[in-house]
Amino acid sequence: MTKTWDFNFIFEGKRDECLLNSLFLLDMIHAKHLHKYFGDLHVLDDVGLHIQEKEIVSIVGASGAGKTTLLQILGTLDFPSSGELYLKGQNIYKLSKRELTRFRNEHIGFVFQFHQLLPEFTAMENVCIPAFIRNTPKKQAERKAQELLEFLGLSDRISHKPSELSGGEQQRVAVARALINDPEIILADEPSGNLDSESAENLHRLFFKLRAEFGQTFVIVTHNEELAEMVDRKLTMVDGKIH
Length: 243
Ligand SMILES: Nc1ncnc2c1ncn2[C@@H]1O[C@H](COP(=O)(O)OP(=O)(O)OP(=O)(O)O)[C@@H](O)[C@H]1O
Ligand SMILES: [Mg+2]
Hints:
The protein is α/β, with parallel strands linked by helices. It has a single domain (53-81, 94-242), classed as P-loop containing nucleotide triphosphate hydrolases (Rossmann fold). The protein is built from eight helices and ten strands. The protein has helices at residues 2-24, 67-74, 97-107, 123-133, 138-151, 167-179, 197-214, 225-230, and strands at 27-38, 41-52, 56-61, 82-87, 90-91, 108-111, 185-189, 217-221, 233-238, 241-242. A six-stranded mixed beta sheet has the order 6-7-8-3-9-10. A four-stranded antiparallel beta sheet has the order 2-1-4-5, covered by helices on one side. Strand 4 and strand 5 form a beta hairpin. It starts with a helix and ends with a strand.
Protein backbone atom coordinates (compact mmCIF):
# COMPACT_ATOMS: atom_id res chain seq x y z
CA MET A 1 0.00 0.00 0.00
CA THR A 2 2.72 2.44 1.05
CA LYS A 3 4.69 1.48 -2.04
CA THR A 4 1.79 2.36 -4.34
CA TRP A 5 1.42 5.72 -2.65
CA ASP A 6 5.15 6.39 -3.03
CA PHE A 7 5.00 5.55 -6.69
CA ASN A 8 2.04 7.83 -7.29
CA PHE A 9 3.77 10.58 -5.43
CA ILE A 10 6.78 10.29 -7.71
CA PHE A 11 4.52 10.19 -10.74
CA GLU A 12 2.61 13.28 -9.61
CA GLY A 13 5.90 15.04 -8.98
CA LYS A 14 7.09 14.28 -12.49
CA ARG A 15 3.83 15.47 -13.97
CA ASP A 16 4.08 18.76 -12.12
CA GLU A 17 7.66 19.12 -13.26
CA CYS A 18 6.58 18.61 -16.89
CA LEU A 19 3.79 21.12 -16.47
CA LEU A 20 6.15 23.67 -14.95
CA ASN A 21 8.70 23.07 -17.70
CA SER A 22 6.15 23.64 -20.42
CA LEU A 23 4.96 26.82 -18.73
CA PHE A 24 8.35 28.33 -17.99
CA LEU A 25 10.74 26.90 -20.56
CA LEU A 26 12.90 29.71 -21.79
CA ASP A 27 12.89 30.77 -25.43
CA MET A 28 16.51 30.13 -26.24
CA ILE A 29 16.21 31.51 -29.77
CA HIS A 30 13.60 34.00 -30.87
CA ALA A 31 13.87 35.51 -34.32
CA LYS A 32 11.37 38.02 -35.66
CA HIS A 33 10.76 39.05 -39.27
CA LEU A 34 14.23 38.21 -40.54
CA HIS A 35 14.93 39.31 -44.10
CA LYS A 36 18.22 38.87 -45.88
CA TYR A 37 19.14 40.16 -49.29
CA PHE A 38 22.30 39.41 -51.24
CA GLY A 39 21.97 42.13 -53.87
CA ASP A 40 18.63 41.46 -55.55
CA LEU A 41 18.42 37.95 -54.13
CA HIS A 42 15.86 37.74 -51.31
CA VAL A 43 17.37 34.82 -49.38
CA LEU A 44 15.39 35.06 -46.11
CA ASP A 45 11.81 36.18 -46.43
CA ASP A 46 10.19 37.14 -43.12
CA VAL A 47 11.55 34.27 -41.06
CA GLY A 48 10.21 33.95 -37.53
CA LEU A 49 11.35 31.32 -35.05
CA HIS A 50 10.86 30.28 -31.45
CA ILE A 51 13.19 27.58 -30.19
CA GLN A 52 12.97 26.54 -26.57
CA GLU A 53 15.65 25.58 -24.13
CA LYS A 54 16.78 21.96 -24.61
CA GLU A 55 14.92 21.56 -27.90
CA ILE A 56 16.56 19.76 -30.80
CA VAL A 57 15.28 21.29 -34.04
CA SER A 58 16.24 20.33 -37.57
CA ILE A 59 16.11 22.59 -40.61
CA VAL A 60 15.71 20.88 -43.96
CA GLY A 61 15.19 22.23 -47.46
CA ALA A 62 16.55 22.23 -50.98
CA SER A 63 20.00 23.52 -51.82
CA GLY A 64 19.93 27.30 -51.96
CA ALA A 65 16.79 27.57 -49.77
CA GLY A 66 18.64 29.76 -47.25
CA LYS A 67 19.44 27.28 -44.46
CA THR A 68 23.11 28.18 -43.98
CA THR A 69 22.30 31.87 -44.24
CA LEU A 70 19.73 31.49 -41.46
CA LEU A 71 22.07 29.46 -39.27
CA GLN A 72 24.86 32.01 -39.68
CA ILE A 73 22.46 34.76 -38.64
CA LEU A 74 21.18 32.75 -35.64
CA GLY A 75 24.82 32.22 -34.70
CA THR A 76 25.54 35.98 -34.97
CA LEU A 77 28.22 35.31 -37.60
CA ASP A 78 26.16 37.26 -40.12
CA PHE A 79 23.47 39.92 -39.88
CA PRO A 80 20.03 40.13 -41.50
CA SER A 81 19.09 43.03 -43.76
CA SER A 82 16.26 43.61 -41.26
CA GLY A 83 14.63 41.84 -38.34
CA GLU A 84 15.29 41.08 -34.71
CA LEU A 85 17.11 38.30 -32.90
CA TYR A 86 16.90 37.41 -29.22
CA LEU A 87 19.17 34.72 -27.80
CA LYS A 88 18.56 33.77 -24.18
CA GLY A 89 16.29 36.80 -24.04
CA GLN A 90 19.14 39.12 -25.07
CA ASN A 91 18.38 41.51 -27.92
CA ILE A 92 21.45 40.69 -29.99
CA TYR A 93 21.49 43.78 -32.16
CA LYS A 94 21.67 46.02 -29.09
CA LEU A 95 25.10 44.61 -28.22
CA SER A 96 28.34 46.35 -29.15
CA LYS A 97 30.76 44.48 -31.43
CA ARG A 98 32.89 43.49 -28.45
CA GLU A 99 29.88 42.34 -26.38
CA LEU A 100 28.61 40.33 -29.34
CA THR A 101 31.93 38.54 -29.81
CA ARG A 102 31.92 37.69 -26.13
CA PHE A 103 28.30 36.53 -26.21
CA ARG A 104 29.02 34.26 -29.18
CA ASN A 105 32.11 32.80 -27.60
CA GLU A 106 30.32 32.06 -24.32
CA HIS A 107 26.92 30.88 -25.44
CA ILE A 108 27.13 29.43 -28.96
CA GLY A 109 28.96 26.39 -30.26
CA PHE A 110 29.30 25.67 -33.98
CA VAL A 111 29.69 22.36 -35.78
CA PHE A 112 30.25 22.61 -39.53
CA GLN A 113 30.07 20.01 -42.30
CA PHE A 114 33.77 20.29 -42.97
CA HIS A 115 34.82 20.38 -39.37
CA GLN A 116 37.44 23.09 -40.00
CA LEU A 117 39.97 21.68 -37.55
CA LEU A 118 43.39 23.26 -37.75
CA PRO A 119 45.64 20.63 -39.36
CA GLU A 120 48.85 21.52 -37.54
CA PHE A 121 47.28 21.16 -34.07
CA THR A 122 46.40 18.00 -32.14
CA ALA A 123 42.84 17.02 -31.19
CA MET A 124 43.45 18.41 -27.69
CA GLU A 125 44.82 21.73 -29.01
CA ASN A 126 41.96 22.13 -31.49
CA VAL A 127 39.39 21.59 -28.74
CA CYS A 128 41.13 24.10 -26.44
CA ILE A 129 41.17 27.01 -28.93
CA PRO A 130 37.75 28.55 -28.04
CA ALA A 131 38.66 28.28 -24.35
CA PHE A 132 41.98 30.09 -24.94
CA ILE A 133 40.14 32.82 -26.85
CA ARG A 134 38.07 33.24 -23.70
CA ASN A 135 41.27 33.45 -21.59
CA THR A 136 40.60 30.21 -19.72
CA PRO A 137 43.85 29.16 -17.99
CA LYS A 138 45.72 26.48 -20.00
CA LYS A 139 45.51 23.74 -17.34
CA GLN A 140 41.78 24.26 -16.84
CA ALA A 141 41.08 24.26 -20.59
CA GLU A 142 43.12 21.09 -21.08
CA ARG A 143 41.34 19.33 -18.23
CA LYS A 144 37.95 20.19 -19.75
CA ALA A 145 39.10 19.19 -23.25
CA GLN A 146 40.33 15.87 -21.89
CA GLU A 147 36.97 15.21 -20.21
CA LEU A 148 35.04 16.05 -23.37
CA LEU A 149 37.26 13.97 -25.63
CA GLU A 150 36.87 11.05 -23.22
CA PHE A 151 33.09 11.55 -23.13
CA LEU A 152 33.08 11.43 -26.94
CA GLY A 153 35.08 8.18 -26.99
CA LEU A 154 38.35 9.74 -28.15
CA SER A 155 40.57 9.17 -25.12
CA ASP A 156 43.23 7.40 -27.15
CA ARG A 157 43.25 9.99 -30.00
CA ILE A 158 43.92 13.08 -27.90
CA SER A 159 47.46 13.76 -29.16
CA HIS A 160 46.72 12.98 -32.80
CA LYS A 161 46.47 15.56 -35.54
CA PRO A 162 43.35 15.68 -37.77
CA SER A 163 45.11 13.89 -40.67
CA GLU A 164 45.64 10.92 -38.32
CA LEU A 165 41.94 10.67 -37.43
CA SER A 166 38.99 9.16 -39.30
CA GLY A 167 36.22 11.46 -40.61
CA GLY A 168 33.90 10.46 -37.73
CA GLU A 169 36.66 11.06 -35.19
CA GLN A 170 37.45 14.47 -36.66
CA GLN A 171 33.77 15.38 -36.48
CA ARG A 172 33.65 14.34 -32.82
CA VAL A 173 36.71 16.51 -32.12
CA ALA A 174 34.79 19.37 -33.75
CA VAL A 175 31.83 18.62 -31.46
CA ALA A 176 34.15 18.70 -28.42
CA ARG A 177 35.52 22.04 -29.64
CA ALA A 178 31.94 23.34 -29.94
CA LEU A 179 31.27 22.29 -26.34
CA ILE A 180 34.39 23.46 -24.52
CA ASN A 181 32.94 26.76 -23.32
CA ASP A 182 29.70 25.08 -22.17
CA PRO A 183 27.52 26.91 -24.71
CA GLU A 184 23.77 26.54 -24.25
CA ILE A 185 23.16 26.73 -28.00
CA ILE A 186 24.74 24.38 -30.54
CA LEU A 187 24.33 25.23 -34.22
CA ALA A 188 25.28 22.52 -36.67
CA ASP A 189 25.38 22.88 -40.46
CA GLU A 190 25.29 19.48 -42.20
CA PRO A 191 27.32 17.94 -39.37
CA SER A 192 27.04 14.44 -40.79
CA GLY A 193 27.05 15.42 -44.47
CA ASN A 194 30.59 14.24 -44.84
CA LEU A 195 30.32 10.97 -42.90
CA ASP A 196 29.53 7.36 -43.75
CA SER A 197 26.14 6.18 -42.51
CA GLU A 198 27.46 4.47 -39.36
CA SER A 199 29.50 7.50 -38.25
CA ALA A 200 26.54 9.75 -39.08
CA GLU A 201 24.22 7.66 -36.93
CA ASN A 202 26.73 7.70 -34.06
CA LEU A 203 27.03 11.47 -34.30
CA HIS A 204 23.23 11.88 -34.27
CA ARG A 205 22.94 9.66 -31.19
CA LEU A 206 25.65 11.77 -29.61
CA PHE A 207 23.56 14.94 -29.98
CA PHE A 208 20.76 13.33 -27.98
CA LYS A 209 23.20 11.99 -25.39
CA LEU A 210 24.66 15.48 -25.00
CA ARG A 211 21.25 17.04 -24.60
CA ALA A 212 20.38 14.45 -21.93
CA GLU A 213 23.69 15.04 -20.13
CA PHE A 214 24.21 18.80 -20.51
CA GLY A 215 20.81 20.15 -21.64
CA GLN A 216 21.83 22.21 -24.66
CA THR A 217 19.55 23.52 -27.40
CA PHE A 218 20.41 22.24 -30.89
CA VAL A 219 19.59 23.64 -34.31
CA ILE A 220 20.78 21.24 -36.98
CA VAL A 221 20.68 21.91 -40.72
CA THR A 222 20.63 18.54 -42.41
CA HIS A 223 19.85 16.62 -45.57
CA ASN A 224 19.86 13.41 -43.52
CA GLU A 225 16.26 12.15 -43.45
CA GLU A 226 16.74 9.95 -40.38
CA LEU A 227 18.19 12.77 -38.31
CA ALA A 228 15.55 15.21 -39.52
CA GLU A 229 12.82 12.84 -38.31
CA MET A 230 14.52 11.92 -35.00
CA VAL A 231 14.48 15.43 -33.58
CA ASP A 232 11.81 17.21 -31.52
CA ARG A 233 10.74 19.48 -34.38
CA LYS A 234 11.52 19.62 -38.07
CA LEU A 235 11.40 22.96 -39.88
CA THR A 236 11.38 23.12 -43.64
CA MET A 237 12.80 26.05 -45.61
CA VAL A 238 11.40 26.80 -49.02
CA ASP A 239 12.63 29.85 -50.93
CA GLY A 240 13.71 31.66 -47.79
CA LYS A 241 10.54 30.96 -45.82
CA ILE A 242 10.11 28.61 -42.88
CA HIS A 243 7.23 26.11 -42.99
N1 LIG B 1 27.68 35.77 -49.44
C1 LIG B 1 26.78 35.57 -50.39
N2 LIG B 1 26.67 36.43 -51.43
C2 LIG B 1 25.75 36.26 -52.40
N3 LIG B 1 24.87 35.24 -52.44
C3 LIG B 1 24.92 34.33 -51.43
C4 LIG B 1 25.89 34.46 -50.37
N4 LIG B 1 25.70 33.42 -49.51
C5 LIG B 1 24.70 32.69 -50.01
N5 LIG B 1 24.22 33.23 -51.17
C6 LIG B 1 23.09 32.74 -51.96
O1 LIG B 1 21.96 32.68 -51.12
C7 LIG B 1 21.18 31.53 -51.38
C8 LIG B 1 21.02 30.72 -50.11
O2 LIG B 1 22.30 30.19 -49.73
P1 LIG B 1 22.48 29.23 -48.49
O3 LIG B 1 23.92 28.94 -48.39
O4 LIG B 1 21.81 29.83 -47.31
O5 LIG B 1 21.65 27.95 -48.95
P2 LIG B 1 21.47 26.52 -48.26
O6 LIG B 1 20.02 26.32 -48.04
O7 LIG B 1 22.37 26.42 -47.08
O8 LIG B 1 21.96 25.54 -49.42
P3 LIG B 1 22.83 24.16 -49.32
O9 LIG B 1 21.83 23.09 -48.94
O10 LIG B 1 23.31 23.99 -50.73
O11 LIG B 1 23.93 24.35 -48.36
C9 LIG B 1 21.89 30.79 -52.50
O12 LIG B 1 21.27 31.14 -53.72
C10 LIG B 1 23.30 31.32 -52.45
O13 LIG B 1 23.91 31.28 -53.71
MG1 LIG C 1 24.09 25.29 -46.67
